[in-house]
Amino acid sequence: MDDDGGARRGAPRSVEWALALGFAALVCALVPVIGDWVAAPLGLAALGLGSLGSHVADRDGRPGMWRGLIGALLGLAALASVLFSVVIGAVGP
Description:
Number of strands: 0
Strand content: under 5%
Distance between the termini: 69 Å
Largest sheet: none
């Protein structure tokens, strides 16, 4: 049995959470008004966890860097959608 000192070789959990939260944020961003209140925190969480997780995966040579980046980008897209919705709502008639 090969013991590597207890180091974890799988993807960091934060990349998995970032991907799930990014998808959820993007889906919630498509729901008018109420979705904005849910999508903004989920998007922020996905952006933060995706950035952190992809950095950890890249630094430690673990898999999951791309999943973290995709989760962060999905969170960023959800935040952009919420921002666009808020701006259009404020400027509209």
